[in-house]
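Consider a concrete sample entry:
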Amino acid sequence: MENQPILHPDRNLAMELVRVTEAAAISAARYMGRGNKIEGDGAAVDAMRAFLSTVNMKGVVVIGEGEKDEAPMLFNGEQVGTGKGPEVDVAVDPIDGTRLLAYGRHNAISVIAVAERHSMWDPGGSLYMDKIVVGKKAKEVIDIRLSTKENLNRIAEALDRNVSDLTVFVLDKPRHLKLIAEIREAGARITLHTDGDVMGALLAAAPDSGVDVLMGIGGTPEGVIAAAAVKALDGGMQGMRAPQLDYEIDRLKEEGCDLGEVLTLDKLIRSNNTYFAATGITGGTFLEEVRFGEDGVVTTYSMVIRSRTGSLRFIKGVHQLERKQMPK
């Protein structure tokens, strides 16, 4: 029997992935501002899993969601897709920003990333990582081992701007008090966000977004998902494991991890054929919110990026859905 040819992800996959994030976003959006992030996340997971089963691919979830937050999840190792088509790694976050959704705040999105099989980095027991993300013009000058001030000076020089003109995306967490002080001392501007560092990475890597840099500690799974988008946008990204929990530290010790290892973009995702799709749930800088109109019409706003071509598409979807009773 002759060997079967190896199939690689092609451009047709892009629109299929958008359908997946649209479904998750629509299901999640019904819970906006209702104060229960678990219910919204569960609805998004169920919708994402259902639509993933229709996508022509042999997918394996390598970056699932839920362990850190004890939330519903698409679990690591779960096989998704029809079982036909290219073999791929799949990274998912049905809702990046579950608290943003629960409290009706901006920038909650549904995201998925896909790359050729065995190309995504396995974070093992790492739940948190330190990250720095920039756009194309500054990608060669960042070094996460250097001080905050030195990195900002290097980025400003690469962009031919003053440090005082830079805007840095930082999660508003107690662990970042020192980082925030360092950025202010360096003279850069800061935009603070309670959650959503996948969106932060998107903003930092994309041109003309109003954000020049993402800095700070966020989720490791989210970091791998963000890496697919950053690579597709030809941006720059580096990370380092930054454990925050006692049991996380113990697991990394058991795994013999080098906490000083620099996780480059090519380490996080080795393939140059990656896809990233996102749909806005609550609206924000890039993507508008899911809108429920009359007669079951639902409008969504999505984006999809492919690294091989560098194409970035924004997609407005108008969906004719049957009227359904709002969740109780």
In short: The CA atoms of residues 95 and 110 lie 5 Å apart. The radius of gyration is 19 Å. The mean pLDDT is 90.
